Amino acid sequence: MFLIPFISLVVCYSLHRPLSLQSSLIAIALIIPLIKNLKPQSKIPLASLPYIALPVILFASINSQLEYASDDAIRCLSMFMAAIIIFLQKESKWLIRSMIACGNIHLIMQIAGIIAEDEKMSISTIFPMANEIMFFYMMVMFCAVFAYFKENNALWKKYAIAIGILTFIAIIVGDIVHTKELAIGGEHALGIWLGLICGTLFTAMLYIWKKFELPKKIMLGFSAIIFSIIMSVSIIVVNYDFFSLDARSEISSRLDNWRAGWNIVKEKPLGVGLGAYGANVMQRWPALENSHQTLGSVTYDSAHNQFLQMLTETGWLGWLFYSALFALPWIVAVSRYLNTGQMHFLFIAGTLAAICSVMVVAEAISQFAFIQIIHWGWLVYCVKALRFQKQIIIRPYVRNLILIVLIPMLIFLFYDRGKQLYSVYLTPLERDGLAPLGRALEIHPKNSEALSFAWSLHLYHKDYEKAFKTLEAIEEIAGYFWPLAQARATIYYEMGDLEKACEAAKFPFERYLDEWTLDLKEKLNCGNN
């Protein structure tokens, strides 16, 4: 039964559709087993309450008008449903088996891509981004090792370890198909390698520590120090310039992003709201002379550090609460393994070490829906597997209250999502006319893609007033971000008002070296005006 909804997540995400559609389909896939499992009276561990409550807290922190897209709302509700489903299960073997079965689906897709000579399919399989496929493959490998040690079924034991080995081979050779050389490239998401290596090293260290019966308290303290460093590494790097890189690269420019995020924290210590990082980060970006920005550098609209992302969006209290939800099972798993020697607890500690290491250079909740569900599902699984004894009973009225609140909320979000998707679908059909854009915006006024086309079309028709109003509409939806300054400067330039054009472009001129900014700088020649 529970193989079906989990595998359906992979099927949903394999569709080459907007992330918003994938998020909606994942939520629908989860609500079916949730309803089936919410029996009139059920028991769940007391320790599960914070993990069920966090998605509700995150949902409450979203802008009241869902202005930052209801994707975040859908993800919060998916987290909530996934947590309840896992905690209500007496046996969680299905989760590990599902991961292994899904890994098999990916391998089949790779082979099919090679046979069909479809390079995209053979390298990236069915996930559109390297981070997503690598995170998923990392978890498949951990599950394979766990199944090898814990499975009673000999067939599943052999099947799991075979999939684990093939998955590792697929990661290694994936880029070779493309580059014709043995090298780890962009498709391999170096952050996931960091997680895989850190998780493996921590597991090996813990195993050796137990094998030689070294002092338990020292290992517990060392584990706590490692976690403290992981949760605060972005803060340490920014404040002490620990990695002062001269190289102009994606890695070094990511440090600019961390500095900008830290500037948000200093200004708004209680957070800016879930999903609002991108709307607040641009105007807090470090000045050009203090940054690593170069021509062609990526200007991120997410923190690329999950702990920093939570800190900026939910504030210090949210950051501490979120970090504690990982710290508790991490330390308890280490303690249980040192006391009992059970491989199950070693597996949990190693998995958490890998996941938390990935979170240093990537987002697990607020960027990618599929990573978010796997990330949250596995954290909840780890908590459940620690076997906290105290339980609470879900009474019939609590169960009914969950359904009464959840189902109407999902219906509203899916209705809103349907309008968004249809509006986005209409947008690219005819990009050379205002009429189809007008229809798209009538259906969903917050379609920022349609608005971004509309302002340039208004400029083309020399309707400057409407062009400015369109930019204001974009800013109202997404908050301030740097392309708006270039757009305003471009409009003033076309109007012949060079003074206002230079004033509008002042902010990006001081911070960015992208092609649009440099082209505009050459046109305006503000230093001589």
How would you describe this protein?
It is a single chain. By secondary structure, the chain is mostly helical. The protein is built from 22 helices and two strands. The chain has helices at 3-14, 19-37, 49-61, 71-88, 93-115, 119-124, 130-150, 154-179, 190-211, 216-240, 250-267, 277-281, 306-340, 343-358, 369-385, 396-426, 434-443, 448-460, 464-478, 483-495, 498-511, 515-524, and strands at 42-45, 391-394. The protein has a two-stranded antiparallel ribbon with strand order 1-2. The longest helix is centred in the middle third of the chain and has 35 residues, at 306-340. It is globular. The termini are far apart. The model is unreliable at 122-128 (pLDDT under 50).
Descriptive tags:
529 residues; mainly alpha; 22 helices; 72% helix
Q: Care to give the gist of this entry?
A:
The protein is 72% helix and 2% strand. With 529 residues, the chain is mostly helical. It has a two-stranded antiparallel ribbon with strand order 1-2.
